[in-house]
Structure formats: C-alpha cells, structure tokens
Amino acid sequence: MTLLQLRTRVRERLDDTNAPYLWSDDELNFEINRAVNEACLRNNNLITDSETASVCELSLLVGTNSYAISDKILKIWRIKLPSALKPIMALGYKAFDDSLEQDWEVRDGTPTGFALDIQQRKIVLSHKPIVAETATMVVARLPLVDLSDDSDVPEMDEQWHYDLRDFACYAALLKRDVDAEAMSQGLRYLANFNSVFGERKDHEHGLKSYPRRSVARFV
Question: Would you say 100 and 126 are in contact if contact means Cβ atoms under 8 Å apart?
Fold first, then answer.
C-alpha cells in the first residue's frame, strides 16, 4: 500500500474523510511513519538487510574490537568476515565471560562472536582483529527514510501494511481531547496492533507528551 492509500484508510477509520479535516495530511503521515517504526521495533523480522553498505558494512581495524553501528539497526543476526570460514554469531558479554579467557577484551585473534550493545549503539567483538577487513552484517533495522511522497511504500512486506493503520489511528486520537468512547476505540486499535506485531515492554503509550487539540467526537 502507498502512503496515500494508508492515509485514506486511517481517515476512514477516524471518520475524517470530509474537509475541513480534523487531522492534516502531515499529521497523519507522521503517525503512519510512527506506526511503521513501532511495527519494526516490536517485530524484528519485518525488515532484514545485508546489502545497504552504510548500515551493513563494518570496517574492522587491527587491534580494535569495539565499533559504532547505525542507529537504524535493531538486531544483528550474524557477521561475516572475509578471513573467517564461518559467520560469527551474537553471544553477549556473559557468554564471553563464561567461555573465553578472563582478559578476552584485550586478546588478539580472529573474532568468534560479538556482543550487541543497542543502548550505546555499538558492538564488541570477542577478540581484537588481527586483519583489517570489511565485515558484512545481516541486520534487522528500521526504515532508512520516512514515507513522504504519496506514492511511497513501506519497506516491509505488503502483508503487514494494512495493520499499520491501527497504531496510526490510536496515535492520532491520543493527540486530541476525545470523549471516553473514542478513547476506548483508540485503545482497541492499539490492542489490534499489539496482537499482530507484539507489545513493546518499554512502550507506555509513548505519545503522552503530544499537545492536546480541539475536541473530536465519533459516533
């Protein structure tokens, strides 16, 4: 579905199909893009990438085992080194501490695993590389750019597009002073979205800071 088609479906849900609109196109486009990102955050299988150089390639330096990663990355499934026979997999700091030497952080060698620190936007390899080379990562990520033109299409498979409207409707309603019935409907939209894409444990309806607008009532 295109951005125009998604926005049209959202307007139909919100009973906002006749001008003057309660929500502008820009407002609904913002909520649709938020829905796309929310879907990816909840389900890391929606956008998998191994080809975008700015996201998936990592220039390794001899003697350095900590590297910054793109803020689009949500998860790294594996890393392939030209000098290694097998891809290196995510292990985590505890696995390093349990299975490697106590001073693994300063050991030189061919990396056998990596730890992902998503909060610090970096990865740490199990060893300091002894070869300078370009590693290729297979990642789950957010969209590279927002939808902006009406002809733009979400990067995820089309089977997921229709369900994006639920979060967009929920978010749009939360931006306005709506009556209890409309807010109850908004929460049902969120529940529908959660049932398809899963819940974010750290997501507490994260739109509470949006400014309140004029009252909208739905029947």
Answer: yes
Angle at 194 between CA 191 and CA 199, to 5 degrees: 125
Where do the structural domains in the chain lie, given as residue ranges? Answer: 3-45+146-197, 48-141
Whole-angstrom Cα distance, residue 22 to residue 217? 10
Q: How many CA atoms lie within 13 A of 197 on its CB side?
A: 30
- pLDDT of the chain along its 219 residues, tens only? 999 999 999 999 999 999 999 999 999 999 999 999 999 999 999 999 999 999 999 999 999 999 999 999 999 999 999 998 899 988 877 777 776 666 777 789 899 889 998 889 999 998 999 999 999 999 999 999 999 999 999 999 999 999 999 999 999 998 877 788 888 999 999 999 999 999 986 643 333 333 333 333 332
Alpha-carbon distance of 80 to 137, in angstroms, equals 6
Q: Report the largest interatomic distance among the alpha carbons of the chain, rounded to a whole angstrom.
A: 68
Neighbours of 41 (CB within 10 A): 17
User: Could you give the 3-state DSSP secondary structure of residue 58?
Assistant: strand
Q: What's the rounded Cα separation, in Å, for the pair 79 and 138?
A: 6
User: How far is 172 from 114, CA to CA, in rounded Å?
Assistant: 40
* pTM beyond cutoff 0.90: no
The CA radius of gyration of the chain, in Å to the nearest whole number, is 22
